[in-house]
Amino acid sequence: MTGLDVLKMQKEFYKSFYLRPKVIFRYFLSLFSSAFFIKFKTLTMNALYIILPIK
Amino acid sequence: MKNTTYILINPPILRAERYSSKFLGAAGGSLVPLGILYIASFMESKGCNVEVIDAEHQLLTQNETIEYVRKLINPNKKTYIGISTTTVCFNNAVVLAQNLKKNFPEIKIILGGVHVSSLPEHAMGYECFDYGIIGEGEITNYELIDCLNNNNDINSVKGIVYREQGKLVYTAKREPIKNLDELPFPARHLLKNLEQYVPGLSDYKQLPVTNIITSRGCPGQCTFCSNAVFGRTYRSRSAQNIFEEIEDVIKKYKMKEIHFIDDSFLLNKIRIRELFDLCTEKNLKFSWSCYSRIDNVNYEYLKYLKQHGCWRISFGIESGDKQVLKDIKKNITLDNAKEVITWCNELGIKTTGLFMIGHPTDTVESIKNTINFAVNIPFSDAACCVSTPLPGSEQFKTMFKDCNYNEIDFSKFNTMYSVVPPPV
């Protein structure tokens, strides 16, 4: 396994965890709750792992 | 000590260097540097004038840090400079110390932190550092400076390494501090803009928030963990002592939330119950989060924690593969993890599953097991970093056994690179 393979699998981890209908729905629901602030921050943080290119 | 100034520096490092990306760096937040603040408060308690420069948090460049130091030097006082650094920041600490030596050759520079404690021969190979502190630094720093001020025999100070005629000399080993209650609270008053120290985006519920540490040492045997500074012996502060610090930060700095950063905050159930019973008795209200091992909690305990302000617990799971868990000596079971996370969900405590991939015995299959485990357990959130053999860990000792440390690029040891990818 190369270092790049490990980083690709790290991205796969975040995609698999955060891009699930259940999780996206939970975030959608949080728009209407007091948990919005926490959810929004967490989503922003983890979305970066999914969006940013692997170096 | 009254005619002495000790300038403690957290060296400059770009957020992009620490997190491998400026965007992740911006989201990553910054914690109050408790290590140097504990040393600062201990030195202040002995009458020393202390200044703290958190160059990383203040986004200072190397030159700006030097100029900052220049302003703090009082020619009428003896001045020492202390630099505390982790492994990822070590190269920056060397550049800073070399520049400081060029500008202020008469000032002694003392190096502390996890890198010199783990690899003293590598760290002290740089002549810009005059003395290295191995292990906990509060008492050692004080005794070293007191010794230098009075021209006493340096060998009488335990826990230091220094050069004599080009060779490294180690003094006797410093024992870990037994009674942590004896230490004064971290010198938060020496930081500029305390309210700007905010943890990562997902690590707090309300602001202002500050981090507190209530114990040192971890009895765990995890092969990836560096225990070079605090060691394996678990020592904890008393409930009364922690309560007083919490009361202090709430009253003095108007904090609304506490982020406990102990490796395993919940280990001693009696102490935790004493602490939060005291907070309730004194009507001290705040939200809090912490880190814990899966096997430190049960349903009743979690219920109690939720009733006393706990909003989130981050659990170190590390891998979703049984064999890898065994290989890294994590000593937890996945069934137990599943049970605990389900309880937290039921009780309304948010959970973060902390995972690592790229362990020495990881395979594509075992990493897939980790992903499947994270996805199939009801964690509120999950984080995954790359396993890194930090100096001081069993993994580092095995992987870099016969290596020339000068050939290792330590700036890559930030858990965002795969320093040594798994062989399979």
Description:
The complex is a heterodimer of chains A (55) and B (424). With 55 residues, chain A is mainly α. Chain A has one domain (3-51). Chain A is built from three helices and no strands. Chain A has helices spanning 3-18, 21-30, 36-51. In chain A, helix 1 packs antiparallel against helix 3. Helices cover 34% and strands 18% of the residues of chain B. In chain B, helix 11 (299-307) links the parallel strand 12 and strand 13. At the A-B interface, helix 1 and helix 3 of A face helix 2, strand 14, helix 14 and strand 15 of B.
Helix fraction of chain B, binned, reads 25-40%
Low-pLDDT parts of chain A are: none
Number of individual domains of chain A: 1
Major sheet of chain B: 7 strands, mixed
Q: Provide the β-strand percentage band of chain A.
A: under 5%
Largest interface: A-B, 26 and 35 residues
User: Structural class of the secondary structure composition of chain B?
Assistant: alpha/beta
Tell how many strands the DSSP assignment of chain A holds.
0
Average residue-wise pLDDT of chain A: 82
Number of domains of chain B: 2
Low-confidence stretches of chain B: none
Helix content of chain A: over 70%
Class based on secondary structure composition and strand pairing of chain A: mainly alpha
Sequence-ordered SSE layout with sheet pairings:
The complex is a heterodimer of chains A (55) and B (424).
Chain A: H1 3-18, H2 21-30, H3 36-51
Chain B: E1 4-10, H1 15-19, H2 22-28, H3 34-45, E2 49-54, H4 62-72, E3 78-84, H5 90-103, E4 108-112, H6 114-118, H7 120-123, E5 131-133, H8 138-149, E6 160-164, E7 167-170, E8 209-212, E9 215-216, E10 235-236, H9 239-253, E11 257-260, H10 269-281, E12 287-292, H11 299-307, E13 310-318, H12 322-327, H13 334-347, E14 350-357, H14 364-376, E15 381-386, H15 394-399
Parallel strand pairs in B: 1-2, 1-3, 3-4, 4-5, 8-11, 11-12, 12-13, 13-14, 14-15
Antiparallel strand pairs in B: 5-6, 6-7, 9-10
